[in-house]
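#structure-requests
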Amino acid sequence: MNLFKGILFLLIIAMNTSCDQPVKETPPKRMEISIDTFAMDCSIRAIKAIDDQTMYFAGSKGQFGFTKDGGKSWKIDSIKSKLQPKLEFRGIEKINDALFLLAVGSPALLYKSTDDGQSWKIVYQENHKAAFYDAIAFWDKTNGIAMGDPTDGCLSIITTNDGGETWSKIPCQNLPEAVEGEAAFAASNSNISIFENHVWIVSGGTKARVLHSADKGQTWTIANTPIVQGGKMTGIFSSDFYDSKNGIIMGGDWENKSQNTGNKAVTTDGGKTWSLIADGKTPNFRSCVQYIPSTNGKELIAVGIPGISYSKDGGASWKDLSEQSFYTIRFAADGKSAWLAGANKIGKMTW
């Protein structure tokens, strides 16, 4: 018994001593980025990242291109159109062997290629004088969606269910009514966010709202947001959803890029309600925001003309990483690198 009591006494002393020692916390990892920049002869707002070696882009002057070796070499070409002499692409999507390029302006033109741009065909054309399409995305290799400014009282939304061979415009009677002056910004091909069967579409101008469909565009609801609105260049410029509940929207005022109030908000209920985050704090105007893959919805990067910002807590707080200006960003599938694009340049970011 004496031996047992002695051992017990020593254990108690050891435990008390251990509890008295300060617990060493592992400091949070500091985000340090490196960006390799590649000069381009066009302004680029539409990119598709495949992995750390392969990305596709489309921009002004009808130009498009891609790299498959991490930027060491580029295949660059352009499309000439009699329908639109000054062809400018603001939307891009790559699904398996199909590449889609979406042009802004009227007539609206959507091109498809299955041979990496060696040949193209127009799979959708809209001649309405107000036609102006902003973004395109696909749920899977069969079902896709594109959106644009209002034409007949509602935002323009077209869908496909045959891999992009044919597209149909959703009638306004099946969509929420647009407010006069409400439109969208073709700033980064991120007006559309998709998760499983869900799709969210964002607007700006006189209203900054979020349209939502949980059934691939069959039925729709619309929600107001606290993002700054009412001006010609105010509203939501970008959106992203990590899952069916958690999403983020960003933007602000294009004509007052230093404004950091009313320019970023999050939802935790699938877009029904939105709450401002980091209001009055960095970052200010941003044209694209994206969740970093495989970070449980905690880590984000936002880019814009003022620079690049990073959040490690779901957007509650942000750190400015760089003053370099880019319009858009997309992550490689593994989340370990990202591709960016802007005025006459493409960037590859690692950390």
